[in-house]
Amino acid sequence: MYPRCLKRVLDFCCALAALCCLSPLLVVLTLVGAVKMRGNPFFTQPRPGKGEKIFKLVKFRTMTNQREASGKLLPDDVRLTAYGRFLRSTSLDELPELFNILKGDMSVIGPRPQLVRDMVFMTPEQRKRHTVRQGLSGLAQINGRNAVTWEKKIDYDLEYIRRITLLGDVKIILQTLSKVFKRDGITEEGMDTATDLGDYLLAAGRITREEYDRGQEEARKLIAEAF
């Protein structure tokens, strides 16, 4: 009953209430972001949701669009601004995802929506994490977030979808708030952003360069087909 019906109703009500309460903060962050980023303060990115349907996740922008002379984007650690680090360390960059929840793309609690180029490197078993709406927070986020391995992170996602309960979601919400205040597990140790799954598997010798390139091409095709 809860996963099939009540969860979506509560998601909508919680997202709407949060947007109403946090609207002054959202306005301030939008205005400050527009100044700091010298333009659009929002960042949208294709992410696979429930049923692997690709949607556009919206966040506050934390990186500039600086490029090399060739047109290629500069590395993440170069483009990530001091303001962006602040947003990430406080998780304030995630607030616009409340609109994704309101729309129905996401849930308050569920597996975090990963990149399309991460999904294509998952095993069929691991891709079962997409049988539910992806969440603003989830079991993996309260157990290490980006500070745990990809395998462990996906194991937590699969563990969550096997038993979804109202009490379990409430516990995750409370523990998430604690993690946010403590700023635990925001990034991997020594890195400004988390490593993509394909890059992780390639570096570990788990896939070949050819498999990596095929996966990247598949991801590009999926995004092109979705939009």
Walk me through the structure.
The protein has one domain (2-226). Helix 1 (2-36) packs antiparallel against helix 4 (97-103). It has helices at 2-36, 76-79, 82-90, 97-103, 116-119, 150-162, 166-182, 197-203, 209-226, and strands spanning 42-48, 54-60, 106-109, 134-137. The protein has nine helices and four strands. With 227 residues, the chain is mainly α. The two termini are 33 Å apart. The chain is globular, with a radius of gyration of 17 Å. The mean pLDDT is 92.
Secondary structure elements and their pairing?
Elements: H1 2-36, E1 42-48, E2 54-60, H2 76-79, H3 82-90, H4 97-103, E3 106-109, H5 116-119, E4 134-137, H6 150-162, H7 166-182, H8 197-203, H9 209-226
Parallel strand pairs: 3-4
Antiparallel strand pairs: 1-2
Helix pairs in contact: 1-4
